[in-house]
Amino acid sequence: MANMDNWLNLINISYKTLLNNGRNYAAFDQDQLHQCMEMFYTNGAKRILDPMSGYGTIRPCANQYGISTYCVEINTPCYLWQHLTMPQNAQKYIALIDSVIPKTNQLPEESVLWEASRRDWIAPIGKLLLEYIYLLLLTESQKLNETLYDYDAEKFAIALLLPFSSRLAAMQNGDVQHVKRGSTAVYRNYRDDFTSYLTLLKIKLQHSTNTATTNILNEIRLGDSKVFQFDGERFEFMLTSPPYPNHIDYAKMFGPENELLNELNQKNLLHIPKNLDDPIGSNVVSGKSSGEIWSPHANDFIEKIFSYRKTKKAQDDNRVYYGPYFRNYFYNLQVAYSNIAKHLASTFTGVIIVRNNTARSYIVPVAESIIDIWQNLGFEAKIVDQREMFHVGSKNPQSKGFKAKHMEYVIKIWREEL
């Protein structure tokens, strides 16, 4: 069998981190999570909403307190990771893995050992091999649906494949969570590596069934919190963190995975879309428009960005990209919170954890703007805790001084029925 470390170094860095650590970059550290959950538990919480849930970081901690979660995520790979790692699905995925491992030798042998591509995230042979793997997973899921479990065969098949799919991609890992299109895809020993991946994942899933309360019903929905209807429910408690501005290119961090999703959808083999349009924090600004921004802090910051005068290049960059980017970011955050607020109970308590980063030597006032938005929506909002952080929200891990030094804020949002 191939060396497990080798294939881990070839997959998308986000999945490598998730498989190694069980979590990826998130606002919450474990101490914070437990403090929040203790507060929610003391206040009688049975379920917590996270409308921008990412990889589902809050779920394991909430379940330890007997609290279920209702999560919404716009990023399809993140949504599918949550489905894959949800304790209530663990036995189904373990059964699927046990069914697939003996059949990996049925996958085609690699006709070439490598393939280079500059244009595509996944080169032609890589796409073909991934399609074979997907069809094997889909077939076994369908068989189990008939004999053992109630499976959504497509969802289980693609969720199980996606973390491994970049092993056959023509991409390079960059800093933090960035991946770059164009490289050499290595196909040698891909079947052994796929078996190694399934074996590792099975161990992690078995561990989750031993440590989690599997009878707690957690829910995950693929959706855009700016317009999502939350199944018509009203939530009494919320714990969440927004995407951080100018930190991760959310539209590209899963480039290989989204290309595979798009390929399978186009062939009518899958009916789960790639990333939904217009995620908060998307680096795509061309053709986007925004409305009135309520927050004085956000408006003041955006005015500073447009008025920045250090160099002509910086002025042009601010006019074409940074100014529109931050205007879209704050407006989309406002739209999302306005929609979420419609689905909150008359008596409500929420916590938002956020870190202010920097741009053009200015602090990006995310925390202050969030308070402005929620107060405008008729809620009470205030900072209840803060701490100094380093290298948070910066694309450059070599940043020093002001650019590396950021503040983390814990914001409490609440209202009481009159």
Overall description:
The chain has about 425 residues and is α/β, with parallel strands linked by helices. The mean pLDDT is about 90. Helix 6 crosses helix 7 and helix 6 runs antiparallel to helix 9. Helices cover about 45% and strands about 15% of the residues.
Short synopsis of the structure:
By secondary structure, this protein is of the alpha/beta class. 43% of the residues lie in helices and 17% in strands. Helix 12 runs parallel beside helix 13 (366-376).
Topology:
Elements: H1 4-10, H2 13-21, H3 30-42, E1 47-50, H4 58-64, E2 68-73, H5 76-85, H6 90-100, E3 114-117, H7 124-147, H8 153-165, E4 171-173, E5 179-181, E6 183-186, H9 190-211, E7 219-222, E8 235-240, H10 255-266, H11 296-307, H12 312-341, E9 344-356, E10 358-359, E11 362-363, H13 366-376, E12 380-390, E13 405-415
Helix pairs in contact: 5-8, 6-7, 6-9, 7-8, 8-10, 11-12, 12-13
What keywords describe this structure?
418 residues, alpha/beta, three-stranded parallel beta sheet, 13 helices, 13 strands, 43% helix
How far apart the termini lie comes to 65 Å
Beta strands, count? 13
Strand % is: 15-25%
The global form is globular
